[in-house]
Write a structure and sequence with these properties.
Elements: E1 3-8, H1 12-24, E2 28-34, E3 45-46, H2 48-51, E4 58-61, H3 68-77, E5 81-84, H4 92-105, E6 109-111, H5 119-130, E7 136-145, H6 164-177, E8 188-194, E9 200-208, E10 212-219, E11 224-231, E12 235-239, E13 250-254, E14 258-262, H7 267-278, H8 282-300
Parallel strand pairs: 1-2, 1-4, 2-3, 4-5, 5-6, 7-10
Antiparallel strand pairs: 7-11, 8-9, 9-10, 11-12, 12-13, 13-14
Length: 306
């Protein structure tokens, strides 16, 4: 029997990336979407009151970030497991309420950083912790997208807009998910560029910890999406590290003479498979809850960016 999932939000990201994966997924049945639209894809649309009358196993929250906490709390109160787009929430007081509720209800809360389920992520993680190429000397990573339609939610401050919360959080997540490092308040420098409405458009982050990290995020002219790691004995670069076309091969370049090719794969599908396989396991629920907490504490150190 398929797990019943409801969707909150009907924006471009869900339409382009999540919806195609979910409708092809044998583990889930989308039973409805909470949206102001009267028609969305082939899904039944609901207002908030009627949406929460549905019998759901999971909810996928893809609404503007300022609404995340509200929908996470309401879903947990209705005994629904929660998958939520990043950032999961933007303050610790709300997260502590969510944490207590998730533990009390014995439910999964999960922040959707899908890139960590791609085989490239595991490959890099093994290299880093095996110290095959020695210690890391420096890291350089960028996630920059072309300008969007000005009606896009990312330009709307009041609903949690801004490109730090959409793109910069991926870079910050590397510190925990890939490198297992906590960011300290005294080891970073940031420079942010904002528009007249004080929405963060782009910026640079410099981290001086166990190794130097240079992170660049925002909206610009050219598309940048890469990760470079400079080890003592090797230089590794991965193009399209965070967001990948599921029809394209993925390539790791090691120095200038070696390429490791990964076959095309849908990292969103891999994420859902991992959730379905493990969501009832206590250790998994505790681990994902801790992941959200560490990520939130890290991004809150950059509060001026959003």
């Amino acid at each position: 029997m398929k797990l019943k999932i409801g969707v909150i939000g009907s924006g471009e990201h869900f339409s382009r990336n999540i919806y195609p994966t979910l409708i092809e997924n044998n583990d889930f049945e989308i039973v409805g979407v909470l949206t102001k639209k009267k028609k969305f894809k082939n899904l039944v649309c609901f207002n908030e009151s009627n949406f929460y009358k549905l019998d759901l196993d999971f909810v996928y929250i893809a609404s503007p970030s300022k609404t995340h906490s509200k929908f996470v709390i309401k879903s947990l109160q209705k005994n629904i497991n929660v998958l939520c787009e990043k950032p999961f929430c933007d303050n610790l007081s709300e997260f502590n309420m969510i944490k207590k509720l998730a533990i009390k209800k014995n439910l999964l809360i999960f922040e959707c950083f899908m890139y960590r389920f791609h085989p490239i992520f595991d490959y890099l993680k093994k290299i880093i912790f095996s110290k095959k190429f020695g210690k890391i000397k420096s890291v350089n990573s960028s996630f920059v997208i072309p300008p969007l339609d000005k009606k896009n939610n990312r330009y709307k401050k009041k609903i949690g807009g801004g490109f730090f919360l959409d793109l910069g959080v991926y870079l910050i997540s590397l510190q925990h998910y890939l490198f297992d490092i906590k960011i300290k308040r005294n080891n970073f420098y940031t420079k942010t560029y904002k528009n007249s409405n004080k929405v963060s458009l782009k910026g640079n982050i410099f981290l001086n910890g166990k190794f130097l990290s240079f992170y660049n995020w925002g909206v610009g002219i050219d598309y940048h999406n890469f990760l470079e790691i400079n080890f003592e004995k090797a230089f590794i670069k991965v193009n399209r590290f965070f967001s990948k076309n599921k029809l394209e091969k993925s390539i790791i370049n090691i120095n200038s003479n070696k390429k490791i090719i990964f076959k095309p794969i849908d990292q969103f599908s891999l994420m859902f498979k991992d959730v379905v396989k493990n969501y009832k396991i206590k250790k998994y629920k505790v681990n994902e809850l801790n992941n959200i907490e560490v990520q939130l504490k890290n991004i809150l150190k950059f509060k001026n960016e959003f």
